[in-house]
Amino acid sequence: MTLVEISKRQPVVVLAPGRYEIRFTASAATREKLRAAQELLRHALPDGDTAEVIDRALTVLLDSLLKRRPRLQTGREPPVPPVQAPEPFRPRYAGRRRSSDARARQADVLLNSWSQ
Asked: Cα–Cα distance between 36 and 103 in angstroms, integer?
């Protein structure tokens, strides 16, 4: 059985402990993205190692996805913050009189004096 036949059946082949051969078919756009990433990383990866470029790209992708979906990190739903009850409705002048309402103040004074 040739390596090509093995690769067609299994897209991932174990080469050594911790090393794998991964084969896939990519579109022209994906190939161009890979080449562009290799060029942008030339300062860090002079040889443009395809495996390292893909590893870095997948690391960034996973970090981005885990920030948006924290449940994937822990396997459980993120805690939901408690809902604060809205403050009860109070009329604008509840429990107090407007200073311009002289009649109401006079009525309060009269009521208080009669109750004593």
From this structure: 81
